[in-house]
Amino acid sequence: AQTIHQWPVAEIKAVGSPLSLGCTIKGKSSPNLYWYWQATGGTLQQLFYSITVGQVESVVQLNLSASRPKDDQFILSTEKLLLSHSGFYLCAWSRHFNQDTQYFGPGTRLLVL
Amino acid sequence: QQKVQQSPESLSVPEGGMASLNCTSSDRNFQYFWWYRQHSGEGPKALMSIFSDGDKKEGRFTAHLNKASLHVSLHIRDSQPSDSALYFCAASEPYNVGDNSKLIWGLGTSLVVNP
């Protein structure tokens, strides 16, 4: 069975500080990977997707970047946090790109002060 | 304009009752639809997908798709308090190589099932 793990569970960070969030998928080789952002009680906004190791495509520009250093790992980061970065960050995977069910991780809650 | 619109924004039903959620797309290119459920503090979980006109039933959940009217619905019979959650409709176009096609999400319907 596939499992998806996100770290950390939650973060409180200062404006202007750096950030790194991680996601690991176990039990599935060559997954398609996605990063989403969600405001409290809001809809999901896809940020990045990756079809293969080393390749990441940006969907929206939010002063964030993403990398896929390993087949099973997806990293979301920024050098300078903004207040608007607060929210719930979700990592997801699918077998096929986009036209397929996406399976989400437990998420990381971020509060920027 | 939101390409995937959900209604109602919130819904309250008694335990054992029927909950009906609606989703309408404004883009005729959308061919694939999903319903996801998100409990508070958790990641969304896919309930079901529907790609063809008609009904699709999985346990207490029935989805209905009408591509001509760009409408998809979700019906939950015998609703339970554990069904209380945020429900999202998501849609996508057929994928073309080189496309940045992605899943488009509705704003969600908040369902409360009262014991």
Question: Which secondary structure elements does this structure contain, and how are they paired or packed?
Answer:
The complex is a heterodimer of chains A (113) and B (115).
Chain A: E1 3-7, E2 10-13, E3 19-26, E4 32-38, E5 44-52, E6 55-58, E7 65-70, E8 73-78, E9 87-94, E10 103-104, E11 108-112
Chain B: E1 4-7, E2 10-14, E3 19-25, E4 32-38, E5 45-50, E6 54-58, E7 61-66, E8 71-76, E9 85-92, E10 104-105, E11 109-114
Parallel strand pairs in B: 2-11
Antiparallel strand pairs in B: 1-3, 3-8, 4-5, 4-9, 6-7, 7-8, 9-10, 9-11
Quickly describe the structure.
Chain A is an all-beta fold.
Strand composition percent of chain B: over 45%
Largest beta-sheet characterization of chain A: 7 strands, mixed
Q: What would the average pLDDT of chain A be, to the nearest integer? A: 94
Rg of chain A, rounded, reads 13 Å
Total strands of chain A: 11
Number of helices of chain A: 0
| Shape descriptor of chain B | globular
Oligomer: heterodimer
Radius of gyration of chain B: 14 Å
Structural class of the helix and strand makeup of chain A? mainly beta
Notes on the structure:
Chain A is mostly beta strands and 113 residues long. In chain A, 0% of the residues lie in helices and 57% in strands. Chain A is built from no helices and eleven strands. In chain A, the strands form two sheets. In chain A, strands 2, 4, 5, 6, 9, 10 and 11 form a seven-stranded mixed beta sheet that branches. In chain A, β4 (32-38) and β5 form a beta hairpin. Chain A is globular, with a radius of gyration of 13 Å. The mean pLDDT of chain A is 94. In chain B, the strands form two sheets. In chain B, strands 2, 4, 5, 9, 10 and 11 form a six-stranded mixed beta sheet that branches. In chain B, strands 1-3-8-7-6 form a five-stranded antiparallel beta sheet, with no helix packed on it. Chain B is an all-beta fold and 115 residues long. Chain B has strands at 4-7, 10-14, 19-25, 32-38, 45-50, 54-58, 61-66, 71-76, 85-92, 104-105, 109-114. In chain B, a hairpin with a 2-residue loop joins β6 (54-58) and β7 (61-66). Chain B is globular. Helix content of chain B is 0%, strand content 54%. Chain B is built from no helices and eleven strands.
